[in-house]
Each structure stands twice: as structure tokens, then as C-alpha cells.
Write a structure and sequence with these properties.
Elements (H helix, E strand, L loop, with lengths): L6 H46 L5 H11 L1 H45 L2
Helix pairs in contact: 1-2, 1-3
């Protein structure tokens, strides 16, 4: 946000932030659904892999399972990172909203004192 000088600009900025926040809520919900699906796919792949690996000691079985589910693990990790990023971005919008609201309050007080 560039330097904002008047109430109208601050209100426009708040509206813009609010619109982005609304879109962010929908996006976070979509990403939560994707994350849940990826988690479930990873669990299923791990269970299938555990059943398919036979005759090995514990460490070898774990390594074999990890290799068999690597694609699902990567998809889950990407979904989780994307979800975490969206939540961080939403928090950033929340902080921007609070900052802009504070600026608006200060500008309103300044106008009130100045008689405008």
C-alpha cells in the first residue's frame, strides 16, 4: 500500500482488503478439502504398501513402504505447504486490515481536529 492521504482512499483500501479476505476464506476451504483428500490417499497408500511388503525386518519394511508411497507423500506435502501459505496470506490481510483501520481512525481524528 502506498502512502494514503485521505479517508476515501483508506475506505477503498479497506474494501479491497475485505474482498481479498473473502476470497481467501473460500480458497482456504478448498485447500483444506484437498489436504484432507491427500492425507486420506497417503494413509490408504501406506496401508496397501504395508500389506504388500513381506519378509523384511522393521527398518527394511519401513524403507520399502516409504519408497512405495513417495508420490502420495509428495502430493500431501505440497497440499500442506499450499494450505499453510494461504493461511499465512490470510493472516497478512488481517494485519493489513488492522493497520488500515488504525490509519483511518487517525485520519478521521485529524480531520475532526482540523474542522474538515
Amino acid at each position: 500500500m502506498n502512502e494514503i492521504l485521505n479517508i476515501d482512499q483508506l475506505i477503498a483500501e479497506l474494501r479491497s482488503i475485505t474482498a481479498k479476505q473473502a476470497q481467501g476464506v473460500d480458497r482456504i476451504h478448498e485447500l483444506e478439502l484437498v489436504l484432507d483428500e491427500r492425507s486420506q490417499r497417503l494413509d490408504i497408500a501406506r496401508a496397501k504398501a504395508l500389506l504388500s511388503v513381506v519378509g523384511k525386518n522393521v527398518e527394511e519394511k519401513k524403507a520399502a513402504v516409504d519408497l512405495l508411497v513417495i508420490t502420495e507423500r509428495e502430493a500431501f506435502d505440497l497440499a500442506k505447504a499450499t494450505h499453510t501459505y494461504a493461511k499465512a496470506k490470510a493472516k497478512n490481510y488481517e494485519m493489513a486490515q488492522m493497520s488500515t483501520q488504525s490509519q483511518l481512525t487517525a485520519v478521521r481524528a485529524t480531520y475532526a481536529i482540523g474542522g474538515n
